[in-house]
Automatic annotation (TrEMBL):
GO biological process, one term: D-methionine transmembrane transport
Classification via Pfam families: BPD_transp_1
SUPFAM superfamilies: MetI-like
Name by which UniProt lists this protein: D-methionine transport system permease protein
Naturally occurring in which organism (per UniProt): Microbacterium saperdae
Length: 219
């Protein structure tokens, strides 16, 4: 009989915590990130609403946050996290740093996806008298939707990695299970199960994102 501390209840509790952190932080992080990405594209010198000051501030914010390792960010904003959710530990304590980590990442990916749209499409929209909002809604976003799906897929996988990393400082989830039982208690079976679980989740996310992007690009 294989000796392990892992039980089905312990595993599914950790899996549920990981999916909870992933879902909540991805939802709010995607909203903020998409808005950031659109704002960066709109305010750039060749954008539909150029604004040098806003463009500088937005790019500086994205670059500063993205330059911080997630563990450093998590610790650095502990007071802010307590202020927002009332705690800095557990799964809820990890949500704020996860959102702040993924939002600028998504913002930069969204920016790149929108900039891939040929400039001729934007010029054609302007020549037809389209407003900035119409240009984005009717031209840029439909043309970039396949690329945007792939960008969000990449961001989701990066966010999953961050949830596992958050587990190393007591945030719960698969990462906490791997550290508390697999590493600290030398439980090889637990470590193997957590690794396989993360690999399977990543593969499913990538498969779904790739297929959805392919369908959108064919329309």
């Amino acid at each position: 009989m294989i000796d392990t501390l892992l039980t089905p209840e312990l595993f599914f509790e950790a899996l549920g915590e990981t999916l909870y952190m992933l879902g909540i932080s991805l939802f709010f992080g995607s909203i903020l990130g998409i808005l950031l990405g659109i704002a960066v594209v709109v305010t750039r010198p060749t954008g539909v609403l150029p604004n040098a000051v806003a463009s500088f501030v937005l790019n500086a914010f994205i670059n500063v946050v993205r330059s911080l390792p997630f563990i450093i960010l998590l610790v650095a904003i502990l007071p802010f996290t307590r202020l927002v959710v009332g705690t800095s530990i557990g799964v809820n304590g990890a949500l704020v740093p996860l959102i702040l980590m993924v939002a600028p990442y998504i913002g930069r990916l969204v920016e790149n996806s929108l900039l891939e749209v040929p400039e001729g499409i934007v010029e054609a929209a302007k020549s037809m008298g389209a407003t900035p909002v119409q240009i984005f809604v009717r031209f840029l976003l439909p043309e970039a939707r396949g690329s945007l799906v792939l960008a969000l897929t990449t961001a989701t996988i990066g966010l999953l990695d961050a949830t596992a990393m958050a587990g190393t400082v007591g945030a719960g989830g698969i990462g906490d299970l791997a550290i508390s039982y697999g590493y600290q208690r030398f439980d090889g079976i637990t470590m193997l199960v957590t690794v396989v679980t993360l690999v399977v989740i990543v593969q499913l996310i990538q498969l779904f994102g790739t297929r959805l992007a392919r369908k959108l690009r064919r329309r």
